[in-house]
Amino acid sequence: MKYIIIVGCGMAGRGLAAELSKKENVVAVDISLKKLESLGDDFNGKKIWGDALDVKVLEDAGVKDADIVFFLTGNDNINLVVAKVIKRKYGVKKVVLQVNDAMKKKIFTEEGLVIFNRTYLFVEVLKKCIL
Amino acid sequence: MYIVIAGAGKLGLVLAKKLKDDDHQICMIDKNRGVCNKLAEQFRDILIICGNAAYPDVLKEAKIEKADVCVSSTSTDEDNIIICYLAKELFGVKRTVSRVNDPKHLPLYKYMEVDNPVDSTSIVARIVEEEASFTDVMNLLSIKKGRLSIVRVDIPADSPVANKALKDITLPHNSVVVSILRGTDVIIPYGSTVILPADELIAATLIDVEKDLIKVFIGKI
Questions:
Q1: CA A1 → CA A48, B48, B162, B187, distances in Å?
Q2: What average pLDDT does chain A have?
């Protein structure tokens, strides 16, 4: 079983949390209590209410032991800053984050950071349709 | 020097004025068009860029690669960190200074190598705490992460040391009176110097004995 942290429980985060928590050990983090509650009964994991920019909140979420961390907060800069820091300081092997700005996606791309956005996803999916 | 300031809030504005008075070249960036228009009316000789400074092309427009210092004073910490990071990594700015809005976010500034994160909330809290406390003691300076402190003590009329010569007062070990401020005079004291009510003493002390020292001067804490 993998230890997975999902930061940001908007639509994408919620869907991913529900899906992954069926088989894996999932912790969901959000600054909004409402969003955490919206995870509902489908979600079978731990919820942490807090600010992702606060290192203590990340440590409470068990970032040191995480196999994968997803950043889906909808704010490019929060995603980028925290993703970079946890990779550097806690040595998380795989960090996946959403960065909508194409320029920033290019600048911050480095080994171990998987950066995606809507355009990228659309293109990848639609590319498969022509096969 | 050429200094780029991101964020034209109250802090950014005050800073720009000061730096301008010291004959530095200033560029200000703010994402609010109204704020930028006002700035343009107020300052004739600074470069004003309207845009979100957390984007590389906006920083480029500000000619940040020529800047000696990049100051980030926006009200969101993630933006400040990204601005300083881009300035440094992408444009090679040597020195980055940033306002820290929430002290809990300070570790991130350090991990992302912002040169000088200024934690204004903690600084103001410390000053307010000193102003609000009942004792007439003010910590002026902490050295070696607070192990040694320089304190100012106002001598009250009922102080146990009032009208006594310094040599007759037993100070705790590892503390010393550095000077006495009396009205407009500054006195470097000898053993024979007499302490008067309403004097302000400047003392250097190790933190462990600071309370004992204050007790000697004021009689209570």
A1: 20, 54, 72, 72
A2: 93
Residues 39-98 of A with CB under 8 A from B: 51, 53-56, 75, 77-78, 80-82, 84-85, 88-89
Output B22-29 pairs: Cβ under 8 A, ≥24 positions apart.
Answer: B25/B1, B27/B2, B27/B3, B27/B62, B27/B63, B27/B64, B27/B67, B28/B4, B29/B4, B29/B5, B29/B53, B29/B58, B29/B59, B29/B62
The ipTM (two decimal places) reads 0.90
For B90, the closest of A55, A84, A107 (CB atoms) is A107
What structural domains and CATH numbers belong to chain A?
Answer: 3-129 (3.40.50.720)
Q: What is the pLDDT of residues A58-105, one digit of tens each?
A: 999 999 999 999 999 999 999 999 999 999 899 898 999 999 999 999
Q: Which domains does chain B have, with CATH numbers?
A: 2-123 (3.40.50.720), 133-218 (3.30.70.1450)
pTM: 0.79
Contact at CB, B82 and A81, closer than 8 angstroms: yes
